Amino acid sequence: MTDTSNEAQQNANGETTDQLTFQNPVTRYPAIEPPEQHQSEPGLDVELEPKTDRGEESYRGTGRLEGRKALITGADSGIGAAVAIAFAKEGADVALNYLPDEEPDAQVVKAVIEKAGRKAVLIPGDLLEKAFCETVVENAVNELGGLDILVNNAGRQIVAESLEELSDEQLVDTFTLNIIGMFRVTKAALKHLPAGSSIINTTSVVAYEPPPILLDYASTKAAINNFTKGLAQQLAPKGIRVNAVAPGPIWTPLQVSDGQPTEALPEFGQSTPLGRAGQPTELAPAYVFLASPESSYVLGETLNVSGGMPTP
Ligand code: NAD
Ligand code: MG
């Protein structure tokens, strides 16, 4: 049985923080001031300070993905972990891809999924490798007994102060993981996805407002929006919907593993209209909506979850 009765958490103001309770979004989570910190890429949630909310306790499932089978890349930490936890609490079995170094984070997410009464399939491996982009899909299909949700969420973001300082290796790796890997994994998944399936790609608000120190990363995120809108048209007649989610500043290990300059971390997310960084679990309802049949007429859309940062 799916656990849909998890208790809601309380925040510092004594307010309930599960996603279905009426509450003030300004104070749902505190405006964090993370201490300056650094982890080597890809970074771990278990070492992040302050900790994040990935919905372990706070996400409340309502059975919207009962019996579904999902593959999520970058699912050990941050947004991908929050999506994996929410999908499981909504009734889906979930295959999690991540890098082998991230095993400690993956084990945490696996335990939450199993506590929710769902299956968690762990598929560590590097999506920079072309062959693995097919292997990850085949393993997920075999272990889950099929596939009807694909979340392309893995990504790398590494600051470079100038174009001259952007190494060719970083340029190629950023594009290979963030957009070429997305093409490859999606292509491998297509033969398995029945009508009714959903593909959801993680893009970013930087697709519209590229920070000058993230030229390579922001370019891939703009490409993801474009890929999403084109593929959505191509797959619509097959009954497969393709959409994207564009997060604003969300507190995750990506930020402390050279995703931001270290000295910028204490103010992370404070310039949004809500005045605070987002927590990973605040992204989950957007992915659940796009995965579930209730969004049957939503195709080629990018849902912006950005704390009010203006988007086109
Ligand atoms: P995260 O570090 O928790 O997740 C990124 C994941 O990418 C890692 O956990 C890792 O498993 C995976 N990854 C990295 N290199 C890989 C490789 N070579 N092979 C396989 N997997 C690899 O950080 P996050 O912020 O949750 O990032 C998730 C997605 O959200 C990314 O696509 C990121 O660009 C996007 N995003 C994040 C923010 C934010 O503010 N955190 C904002 C906009 C978009
Ligand atoms: Mg991770």
TrEMBL record:
Keyword Oxidoreductase: yes
Gene3D superfamilies linked to this entry: NAD(P)-binding Rossmann-like Domain
Domain of life: Bacteria
Record flagged with keyword Nucleotidyltransferase: no
PROSITE patterns attached to this UniProt entry: ADH_SHORT (PS00061)
Keywords assigned: Oxidoreductase
Signal peptide: none
Annotated region (Disordered), positions in chain: 1-62
Compositionally biased region (Basic and acidic residues): 48-62
Compositional bias (Polar residues): 1-26
InterPro entries listed in its UniProt record: NAD(P)-bd_dom_sf, Sc_DH/Rdtase_CS, SDR_fam
Pfam families xrefs: adh_short_C2 (PF13561)
Similarity annotation: Belongs to the short-chain dehydrogenases/reductases (SDR) family.
PANTHER family referenced in this protein's UniProt entry, alphabetically: NADPH-DEPENDENT ALDEHYDE REDUCTASE 1, CHLOROPLASTIC, NADPH-DEPENDENT ALDEHYDE REDUCTASE-LIKE PROTEIN, CHLOROPLASTIC-RELATED
Protein name: SDR family oxidoreductase
Organism for this UniProt entry: Kocuria gwangalliensis
Lineage of the organism: Bacteria, Bacillati, Actinomycetota, Actinomycetes, Micrococcales
